[in-house]
What does this fold into?
Amino acid sequence: MPATTPAQTSAHELIDFIDASPSPWHAVASAEARLLANGFTRLEEGARWQLAAGGRYYAVRGGASLIAFVLGSQSLVETGFRIVGAHTDSPGLRLKPRAASASDGLARLGVEVYGGPILATFTDRDLSLAGRVVLRGAAGQETRLLRFEQPLVRLPNLAIHMNRDVNEQGLKLNKQTELPLILGQLGEGEDAEAHLRKLLADASEREAKDLLSWELAIHDTQKGCLWGASREFIASRQLDNLASSHAALTALIATEQPTATCVAAFFDHEEVGSESASGAGGSFITDVLARIALQAGLDDEDRRRAMARSFFISADMAHAYHPNFPNAYEPGHKVMVNGGPVIKTNVNQRYTTNAETAARFMGFCEQAGVPCQQYAHRSDLGCGSTIGPMVAAQLGVASVDIGSPMWAMHSARESAGAHDHAFMIAALGAGFGS
It folds into this structure.
């Protein structure tokens, strides 16, 4: 086997991060473990903050959103913040609060659709459950992460003999009646809900009576891998947007003694609009930046001066050109896998990029020695959005939307470029150092 390249090493680190992060709560736990191992200190939002010069800190809100920062060596009012934002959630299926039902001797689990997944890609895959449970403890409520490693549930396809037009019409699934997942066979008189609760309680090492509530995502148990003739591609779940999260986290950890205060913000709920206490539409980012400014001794006037000198990079994945579907793309903006970070532009402000911020990010790429590309959506197709517009509007800062190119966005298993991940880490590192 050929020797592993540095880019493939970065790609393997990303794969390991995603494999350890089957839910947004696990993603934050994975990020927290890396931060603690690299000298960061956790801050509690309910405590008074005491920040030391050059300190490395992070805070968590809602279990699935995290903001980490490294204090700069120069005056905050003169340098402003260097901020990268990404999100921890991915589109898919989530378990309902009372999910289990019995049907013809089978236990099935009812799910809600979270965000905009390609539902057909969840069929016939080895699926399982991951997230968090809330338990009754001696001292009150206790929250624990929960993950089933083994395939636990499945969404079997209907045979083509009963769905003759599936190849011509595509697989269409009724979200209420055709998405419940098969959990297992029930014994005579066995209750499906009791069966599920015992399963969750046993995994939590507690009694079923102590299980109060849960938030559980459906995840594909197949591990990520490199593929292609030269192992130049990545296949994994949740590349959108754990790839951006991992790149920003890696770049921040590698940032030693920066001139400007550097911030990496990872938000939950992007795939459903971000309007939550822990989402990008909430107060988390403004609260953290305000507390940093307060610790730096800035009054309101100086805090606004600092924001005017700040720069925000919204990092989310980008649509790579797919040669099988050329008519889906704007002809002059075909971005290629392994072609470098993508600067995303939309005049209707679905992305925040303007001419000046695009040029600034081009400078980061040039400084890092990596290529960059530019993307615009077809004018006759609706364009997706990111956390960029709402965060930029809240903060009033210059902003650019960027991302690594990928195929099969919102599939149960997505693909991207092994080289692109290393390119993105380098470009974001240059941004933190600017």
